[in-house]
Amino acid sequence: MLLVKRLQDFRLDNGAVDQFIDPAWLLSQFKAQHSIGVRHLLTRASARFRELQRQPGPAPKLLTMEEAFALEVNKVRAKPALHQYNQDCLMWFTQVLSNGFDGVTVKKSKNRYFSTHWEWKDRAVYFASEGGDNNGRWRAMAKEAVALAAGTRSYAIVFRTPDLKPIPGLRWAAARQVIDQACQKGLRIERLSLDEVCELHAAREFYSNALQGNVDIAPADVLAWLKVRFRPWLEKYSTVRDRPAAKPDAEPPRSPEPTAGKPPKSDPIKTGAPPGPDRLSEMQLGRVVDHMKKRLLDDVNEVLNVLGSPSLKDALLAEVEKHPNLKAHPGPQTIYLQWRIA
Question: For position 58, what pLDDT does the model report?
């Protein structure tokens, strides 16, 4: 990928880069042998660059709005570190992306916890940003939510992402009762899926890139498109429920503590036993490494076929991010994995 980096340093568009180093050409360099010297590869690349310069070729293809957004989603999906709770991103959704939706007025409140709210003539929706799991704080938030919703067609939302602990906690006795009651009187704990987190984080990054001139699309056009794209979200969170809300998060039961004299349960990563949905076993990782050593560059979906399950995508990408010889390259349609010789 050094070649790609050098081309991007010259501010060439993505179409020119893709034409120069398409997967078929790169893979053809390794047919005779699995490894070649860097100088040899650069010499061939230089010759290819001059050859392409002499060819008129088609004009570089500009990404559509949908393709540009899909590229950002794949960038986020390829980096597990970007899946984490992001307060700034949630505030951007409630304060910027929502502005102008269905005649809403977006206001910043002086409440202790629910600092943003959407207001209409007949209802209001309040939002709090909270990534912690302190039971005293959550009790106070629950009480504030009930007070805000009392006697009005209003309710209060707290977003939670998959990396956060469930609310209420397993051992929250008094706090659980307060939160359960609040969920019947106006509090909504909204659990975002990983797909939703990736889309929301990608949307903010897409708009930020437009503001900075990193994409060839006007910021106003990007924001207008995103408002349409996320309209189902806005409709969902602006609808006042007439029936009790669903119960808050339920924390999965914990494994019993190992008794004295008995060794703790073995780690599936070390033993090769079936792993959880977010981890690959040693055997599975070995399959990935063997496959990528042979292919050098491949579509993530082809690698998942080798593993036998598309549900392992996030576990695979997490391993790729940690592995010194693997790298993910997001594109508008898919994510490509590359084997790199360290």
Answer: 60
Point out the residues of the chain with pLDDT beneath 50: 2, 4-13, 242-246, 251-276
pTM of the predicted structure, to 2 decimals: 0.71
* Residue 333, number of CB atoms within 10 A of its CB: 12
Of all residues in the chain, what percent are helix, strand and coil, respectively (each to 5)?
50, 10, 40
Which helix (H) or strand (E) segment holds residue 83: the answer is none
Q: How far is CA 42 from the centre of its chain?
A: 35
Domain contains 243? no
Domain of 36, in residue numbers: 2-54
Q: Tell whether 191 and 110 lie within a shared domain.
A: yes
- At residue 260, the pLDDT reads 43
Which H/E stretch holds residue 43?
helix 38-54
- Residue 28 sits in the same domain as residue 176: no
- Cα(15)–Cα(275) distance, rounded to whole angstroms? 40
Q: Alpha-carbon Rg of the chain, whole angstroms?
A: 25
Q: CA end-to-end span of the chain, whole Å? A: 13
Longest distance between any two alpha carbons in the chain, whole Å: 76
Residue 145: name the closest of 155, 153, 137 by CA: 155
**In this structure, are strands 124-128 and 154-160 parallel, antiparallel, or unpaired?**
parallel
pLDDT at 221: 96
What size, in residues, is the chain? 342
Q: Give residue 255's pLDDT.
A: 40
One domain for residues 148 and 230: yes
Q: Are residues 8 and 145 in the same domain?
A: no
Distance CA 300, CA 52 (A): 28
- Structural domain contains residue 262: no
